[in-house]
Amino acid sequence: MKDLGAQEAIYVAGDMGKAEDCERTIQTAKEKFGGLDYLVLNHIGTNHKSKKAFLWDGDMDFLHDHVMINYYSYIRLASLALPLLHQTNGSLVVVGSIAGKVGYPFATFYAATKFGLDGFFTSLRQELVMQDIDVSVTYCVLGFIDTEPSRNFQETFELSKDVKPSPPSDCAMAIIKGGATRQREIYYPWRDAWFGTKLKPLVPGLLDHAIRSVFPPLKEKSALFAGKKH
Fold first, then answer.
1. How many Å separate Cα 194 from the centre of its chain?
2. Catalytic hit among 71, 110, 139, 188
3. Chain Cα centroid distance, residue 147
4. Going by C-beta distance under 8 Å and a sequence separation of 6 or more, which residues neighbour residue 3?
5. Which tens digit of pLDDT belongs to each residue from 57-67?
6. d(Cα 173, Cα 75) in Å, to the nearest integer?
7. How big, in percent rounded to 5, are the helix, strand and coil portions of the chain?
8. How far apart are CA 5 and CA 34, in angstroms?
9. Is the model's pTM score more than 0.70?
């Protein structure tokens, strides 16, 4: 971080699925910085345990763990930070996904959290305006980014090589700019995230077909349908 110009970089190690670690993170920011100007929510956990986990198999324990980290903790952190952001007229930035705008196969649990975050923070934005609270809420609609989880996903499901991931450094800059300029939503990469979001209400069936086409045919079904059909 210092290489990027920061005078000081402070980190807090913790499990965002635990309430006490969320509380400690925001408290540390308050003590070290005296307040908050920005809060960027961008963490993920348990996004896969095996190839079969991606194809919904009814594993409710796995879903619960995933939701606690990738949805519930976002709301907890935001709730803890809002009083501090109110004092500085700050910005709240929520890192979402195109999978939270349109349906993607093999991402049921992940998409559920991203759709949920979009709904929660869009509604929260309305409430802040109605209360005359000058805290901006920026929701980031991200496409396929060149990160380790994305590469693993591409390899596991043999995605078409025509699907090219976008640079994470450019993605990070888009997120920073979006929060700094208090945008309602940002789309990165624009060609995928924006078009996918806007096409859904116009041609949902066609968009669904286009998304499925980048995946090879299924070799097996979910464990939910493993038994013989009577």
1. 16
2. 110
3. 13
4. none
5. 898 988 898 89
6. 24
7. 55, 10, 40
8. 20
9. yes
